[in-house]
Amino acid sequence: MSEPAQGLEDNPETSLDDEASHRLVTELAGAAGDGDAPLIRSLLADVHPADIADCIEQLSWENQDAIARLCPDVFTGDVLAELVEDTRADIVEALEPAYIAEALGDLDSDDMTHVVEELDDEKRAAVLAELTDEDRQYLESSLAFEEESAGRLMQREFVAAPSFWTVGNTIDHMRKAGEDLPDLFFEVFVIDEAFKPIGGVPVSRLMRSHRDVKLSDLMNPAKIVIRPEDDQEDAAYLFEKYHLISAPVVDGDGRIAGMLTVDDIVDVIQEENKEDMLALAGVNDAGQADTVWSSVKARAPWLLVNLGTAVVASAVIALFEGAIAQLVALAVLMPIVASMGGNAGTQSLAVAVRAIASRDLTISNSMRVIWRELAAGTVNGLIFAVVMGLVAALWFNDWNLGWVIAVSMVITLAAAGLSGILVPLGLRRMGADPAVASSVFVTTVTDVVGFFVFLGLGAMVLL
Predict the structure, then answer these.
(1) Any idea which of 62-66, 165-169, 395-399, 437-441 has the lowest mean pLDDT?
(2) Statement to judge: residues 318 and 430 lie in one domain
(3) 102 and 134 co-located in one domain
(4) How distant, in Å, are the alpha carbons of 66, 82, 274 from that of 289?
(5) 3-class secondary-structure state, position 161
(6) What average pLDDT does the chain have?
(7) Do 99 and 72 touch, CB atoms closer than 8 A?
(8) Residue 282: its pLDDT value, please?
(9) What is the CATH number of the domain that holds 298?
(10) β-bridge partners, 187
């Protein structure tokens, strides 16, 4: 039997560096292949759940399945919650419903929902049947909300107290609650007689205050309340804007029904940023379990759209095939104009999409941003017009050619900056996702304008 990876045996739940993680993955693969359940348990005994999940994700599906069969107890609730979506979906299908229900019992309600929502209908029903009545009711009510809504994300365990309670009353109440308290919470919500949140007291302030001080004297007025049907991205925006650590979620009557905490919001922000980044490139998130065919299906449609726009740009070039045949310099320099325009458009587009996602770009400041991007494109065009004009003139010993490419550079980069901001704004106005569709249209604009202006001017001036 091999020894646990160095550094794991000294401290409980030791975090792993890259070298220790690689060593642990190698040892786990060997133990899974040999069917050595005691070794698997020994290797993972003192590893943090997040690191266990990370190592499991790097194994082949055959090894993951072997560990699930040999050591289902490795997949505690915390480990299941840390696994990425595609790996967790496969793992839970390999586990018995009774064991999944037992693992879920260690989690807060929001993490329970996170795991159960990915099960197929049959497996979900089997798991729900194994849960306690309370946990089953929590899950069924959470699953009734739309995906990516605050209702799916919220945690139903929270601490609330009436405004007339003192610090001593509140602390005594929490001590009596014991295991019923959330595993992690940052403030006590202050409620009125109708159970509606009117403020909150940070736990740090509560612990520093005397027992006879009333919560009404300590609380911060409620900055914001969130409804279960609100989009999780809207909730994340409120957390970022108002610097929240937690926030109450209210039902239709305004009564507190749960809370959102910053640890879940961080995950939302990361996920939304990742989606926007991938959408700009026209791809999806290629998970460990994705096949070649699933990746092709996700990417091919956008490549087809790009092919269509490339044909349009080629048709513009074909309009000037006579001029290109007579002056080879046009063919040599033509890609430079298009490339510069494409890069400038991508820069402007990235700024615009990020500003739209973070809600920094609004109706009130859109004209100022449009003029800024147009001016930035024009100034960049002037700078590189001088550079490229001199290069072309000296290269081909033709100052007229230098003037042609210089003017083309200014117009193309100005159009690139303008399209980089107008295209995503226009798509948003039409209800489309700017991150998904903008890049194709911006590239088309810069190519068509660049080719048309450069070849058109070349035909007029040089021929």
Answers:
(1) 437-441
(2) yes
(3) yes
(4) 16, 16, 18
(5) strand
(6) 85
(7) yes
(8) 57
(9) 1.10.357.20
(10) 202
The dihedral over CA atoms of 240, 146, 132, 248, expressed in degrees to the nearest 10, equals: 30
Residues 343 and 251 in one domain: no
pLDDT of residue 431: 78
- Is there a single domain that holds both residue 226 and residue 143? no
Residue 114 neighbours by CB distance under 10 Å: 20
Check residue 375 and give its pLDDT: 93
Could you tell me if residue 108 is inside a domain? yes
d(CA 53, CA 33): 18
In 3D space, the residue among 107, 61, 113, 62 whose CA is nearest the CA of residue 87 turns out to be: 61
Measuring CA to CA, how many Å separate 438 from each of 68, 158, 266, 302, 425? 43, 42, 26, 11, 9
* Dmax (CA) of the chain: 93
What confidence category does residue 18 fall into, taking pLDDT thresholds of 50, 70 and 90? confident
Taking alpha carbons only, the member of 228, 160, 154, 220 closest to residue 188 is 160
What pLDDT is attached to residue 268?
86
Q: Is residue 267 part of a domain?
A: no
User: Span 83-92, mean pLDDT?
Assistant: 84
CA distance 71 to 75: 8
pTM of the model: 0.66
* Number of domains comprising the chain: 3
Over residues 103-144, the pLDDT tens digits come to 888 787 888 888 888 788 888 888 888 888 888 888 888 888
Quote the pLDDT of residue 277: 66
Residue 179 sits in the same domain as residue 133: no
CATH number of the domain to which 126 belongs = 1.25.60.10
pLDDT band at 4 (very low <50, low <70, confident <90, very high): very low
Which residues form the domain of 119? 18-147
Helix 232-242 × helix 262-280 angle, to 10°: 110
Tokens of 412: 């193309």
Q: Last residue of some domain: 147, 179, 199?
A: 147
- Long-range interactions of 240-246: CB distance < 8 A, separation 24+: 240/269, 240/358, 245/186, 245/187, 245/202, 246/185, 246/186, 246/187, 246/200
Length of the chain: 463
Same domain, 320 and 443: yes
Q: Are 409 and 368 in contact (CB under 8 A)?
A: no
Instruction: Reduce the DSSP state of residue 248 to 3 states and report it.
Output: strand
- Are residues 125 and 217 both part of a single domain? no
Same domain, 339 and 425: yes
Inside any domain, residue 335: yes
SS3 358: coil
